[in-house]
Amino acid sequence: MQNFKALKTRTWFAISLILSFAMVTFGCDASKLVLSKNDVSVVMTAENVPEGIRLSFNNIPPNTARMFINVQNNKDDYAGDHDTLISFCDLRDSSLEKVKQSKTVIVPIINAGKDNWIFISFADDQNYSITEPIDIIHAAGNDGIILSFGELTLNDDKSAVSLSKEPVFSSEVIFDPQKKYSFNAIVMRDNRKASFSIGEHHYPAGLSSDGLSWTFEPYWVNELIKLKEDGDCGLETGTYPAFCRAYCNIFYNNIRWSVQIAKSPEYKYSL
Fold first, then answer.
1. In whole angstroms, what is the distance from residue 18 CA to residue 20 CA?
2. What's the total number of domains in the chain?
3. CB 24 within 8 A of CB 30
4. Which one of 98, 118, 122, 181 is least enclosed by Cβ atoms within 10 Å?
5. Residue finishing a domain among 139, 163, 183
6. What is the distance between the alpha carbons of residues 220 and 233, in angstroms, rounded to a whole number?
7. What's the CA gap between 259 and 236, in Å, rounded?
8. Are 246 and 182 in contact (CB under 8 A)?
9. Does residue 154 sit in the same domain as residue 127?
10. Are 43 and 25 spatial neighbours (Cβ–Cβ below 8 Å)?
11. Residue 262: which domain range?
12. Domain harbouring 75, CATH code
């Protein structure tokens, strides 16, 4: 679980690991989930298609103002944040309206041929949860959108990262013309069961002109010191495992996704 600096406001997409109202069925080709809460019912089916995983909904609550979809490797199959492989989208406004009308989302697969954990939450215009989040594991097909991953390099003093190798995608992927790459820096705690993270949108001044590098220090350490001084976040003086991620921002089936393309080696972070 990550604590993001940007989420000091109400956090509506906190991950729920147990769904009291959910019924999940598993299969190689299709998975089905039924949710019911507050008189709101959502039925979702996940099935493999050549271009990824198609999510089909019988209903998206009409008062949904934000729909967050996170897809990553099986949540039971990693030892901490460094092992995750993530793609996500944050549907709002016109993109959300299109999904409400079509009731389908095509998820681009970066973790091909393996189990994928799909987490979806629905919130109203006040960022309050409307119904239980969708929490399902689905076995993806063998076709993914990434033909080769990128490489992310830390500089010697571990204050910046650079994409030393860019990824190669399948031809149907369209890159975001406004921002092709995004980055974040992560410090893990509680035996890797929780973490703190910032992204380049918190510190855009650190981005290089070509968008391939991001300098996050001393901004990041100053933010962590503030959190530690607050005294309610579990940070203490000491050494923590840390690493950085790089994402590529793409449009896939008319939906903007951020897909993980690289991660740095893990290193020790001292406070």
1. 6
2. 2
3. no
4. 98
5. 139
6. 16
7. 32
8. yes
9. no
10. no
11. 146-270
12. 2.60.40
Instruction: Establish if 132 belongs to a structural domain.
Output: yes
Assign 104 to helix, strand or coil: strand
Question: Do 49 and 132 share a domain, yes or no?
Answer: yes
* Average pLDDT per 10 consecutive residues for the chain, totaling 271 residues: 36 27 37 51 85 88 94 67 87 95 92 87 91 84 88 97 95 94 93 86 96 97 91 84 96 93 94 88
In whole angstroms, what is the distance from residue 204 CA to residue 210 CA?
A: 13
Q: Check residue 101 and report its DSSP letter.
A: H
- Concatenating the DSSP letter of every residue in 22-75 gives -EEE--SSEEEEEEEETTEEEEEEEEEETTEEEEEES---TT--EEEEEEEE-T
Radius of gyration of the chain (CA): 19
Q: Give the residue among 11, 15, 34 at the shortest CA–CA distance from 24.
A: 34
Residues 135, 18, single domain; the answer is yes
Residue 14: CA count within 13 A, CB half-sphere: 11
Residue 20 lies in a domain: yes
